Amino acid sequence: MALLVSSSRRDRTPARRRAAVRRTAGRSLIHLLLLVGGLLWLFPFLWTLGSSFKSADGFFSRGLNPFPDGVHLSNYSGAWKGASFGTYFVNTVLVAGGSVVLTLLATSMAGYVLARTDFPGRKACIGLISVTLFLPHGYTIIPVFDIVRGLHLLNTLWAVIIVQSSSSLVFATFLFMGYFSTMDREIEDAAKVDGAGFHQTFWRVMLPLSGPMLATVGLFTCISAWNSFFVPLVFTLSKPELRTLPVGMYSFVGQNSTDWTFLCAGSVISLVPIVAVFLLLQRYFVNGLAGAVKG
Amino acid sequence: MQLLDTATPKPPTDGLGAAHRAAPPKNGRWRRLVAGRLSYLYLAPLMVLLLLFVVYPIFGSLAYTFYRWNGIGSPGDFVGLDNFRQIAHDSIFWRAVSHTFVYSIVVVPVQLAIALVLALVLNDRKLRFSAFYRTLFFLPVVTSPAVVGVVVQLMLSNFGDTLNGWLLDAHLIGRPVDWLGNPRIALGIIIVVGIWQTLGYNLVYFLAGLQTIPEEVYEAAKIDGAGHVRTFVNITVPLLRPVGLMIVILAFIGSFQVFDLVQVLTGGGPYFGTEVVNTYIYHLAFGGNQAAATEPNVGLASAASFFYGLLLIGFSVLQVLIFRSLAKRRAAGRA
Known about the structure:
Helix content of chain A is 77%, strand content 0%. By secondary structure, chain A is mainly α. Chain B folds into 2 domains: 3-65, no CATH class; 85-334, MetI-like fold (Orthogonal Bundle), CATH 1.10.3720.10.
């Protein structure tokens, strides 16, 4: 390479041209490998999508072949109505939506006052929140169950929403605290000059300015609540009509082990919404993850 | 990822806090408390949720470890440290621990190796569609392990054109493999799916780490005539080490907590052959398909969980110590 660079007519030498060709060929090979690898990587999803359109016979005869033997949309109506996936879907939307709202409210408000105001006990609060990260998180579901029972929330979706939200509170609070602490003080001063009180400064000025962080925390919460398995499993053991999609899938396998195509349609119903949400907002998700590890 | 975010932000210098601090501090604690009332109001929802659903349960479950209790009514049968003794002597617990460790010891290095190679390829600025490929390989992360488990179960079932059929045709196997019925193979399947599902996190982490390395360093290396391998060994690896350490720790923490995938794919079976610690605890607390012979024992489950928590803390400390001593030795070698 060094020799080539020193050559004055470097673009015209055959060696240079050969190197360029080789580089292009190398790039194409990388693209080919990435594309084929990526398709194989997503094969389980492609197979599920294809199989959700198969007939019952087609499902048995085609096996791992992802291409359906027709477009049998009845799988979807069957899964939606017959196998209760419609109910599960509504429950999952409520759980994910409720968790996002609850988490965003609690953590943005707390992050704001911890970062921007001073009051007796502020450091103690930050200390308490930090310590919970390091306590051994054992099997705490039984005490949680007791509290939910004490609040008379057993057998409601509220139980799932509140318990699910509480799992990510600390992380989200730290994200908001970090975000608000970097904001310019002049913004608050300007709001004050305009006559904004404490509430108005937060709700009308600071919160709208924290849009990217709202998106990051909201997306993290939404994805983990949508996919959550353990919490909804435990809190819906005696109330099948409150099941979310992952729990519904799990119990469906246990009970009706013949309607495989319904199960594939159910998988698509479970996977597509969250994948779509991710694709729309992935910038915030990936930036949030990257920020976390860079520290 | 949480560990890094515990750094407290700069204390507020003079923002709204000062504006709403109606009286100067010397007027006493009470006035400051009153002045901060809106701050307390804003903090209240978080603190209530945290105390009720995070802090209290940790100590609550610790209290249960001293009782034999099926989870109904209030615990009455005090057994002291018997639960811990029973766990320490339960061979199924130790098998569950060993399965969890096998899972982690295979998943973490394999996954990190694949993720690093992919990250190196995708980090090339001249590579077009790099973000598209990243999304492609990241996608399994945003899907539910429970749903993935069901899908994998369906894919492995013995209908039509199956994996078994292909392998039989290729004479790679003599007879159909019972993928989830043979404990060793089932654990292997869980490991493969585990690698596939969480690789995306590490890909994004490594990409973030690679982007912290300034382009000029690579250019300087190129001018000095360093090849790809030497650049990787002498520049990429050392500069990636701080982020890499975090990635390794996070990967281990995540893999030690595996539950959803195992519960859905095998339920810990057959015959506890794929039981991991979290499914073991779940079966103790709620009864299970195979542990059904025993009645749920919340005290025993809490003890197992607490015991495992201590094991993990011990492991984390060990991990940090090993990394630190390695770093010290390297520094000494360089000096």
